[in-house]
Amino acid sequence: MRVEWTDELSIGIGIIDDQHMKLVERVNAFVDAVECRDDRKIEETVNYLIGYTIQHFGAEELIMLRNGYDDFKKHREEHNWFIKMVYDVNKELLDKGLSQERLDQVRELLVSWIVNHIKVSDKRIGEVIR
């Protein structure tokens, strides 16, 4: 269930592609931590995702704004949804922990969202800006 970085995930904007690679690495770290049931690593990875996604989304949104990207608002809503989801997972983790079933659910959601978001929404940024 790991994400493999391929050219299909590249959007053609160097800084964004580099950040996406780091994001994929962290999602894979989460997948590994869930499979090993390493609670410390799960918490560490979720904390990292909170900070890094905010930083990455900010950079991506700045590029969209500077280039007059026509679908900025919709794209930003997708980012906001993801940040809220990761925040909620972190809150659950801190408040009561996560069951294996919930961890599996979050793992699947992270993997599918990242891949689909990059392949569809982010890919379009690269196409429009170039």
UniProtKB/TrEMBL annotation:
Lineage: Bacteria, Bacillati, Bacillota, Clostridia, Eubacteriales
Organism: Heliobacterium modesticaldum (strain ATCC 51547 / Ice1)
Keywords, alphabetical: Iron, Metal-binding
Family of this protein: Belongs to the hemerythrin family.
Boundaries of every Hemerythrin-like domain copy: 13-125
Protein name from the UniProt record: Hemerythrin family protein
InterPro entries: Haemerythrin_Fe_BS (IPR016131), Hemerythrin (IPR050669), Hemerythrin-like (IPR012312), Hemerythrin-like_sf (IPR035938), Hemerythrin_metal-bd (IPR012827)
GO molecular function list: metal ion binding
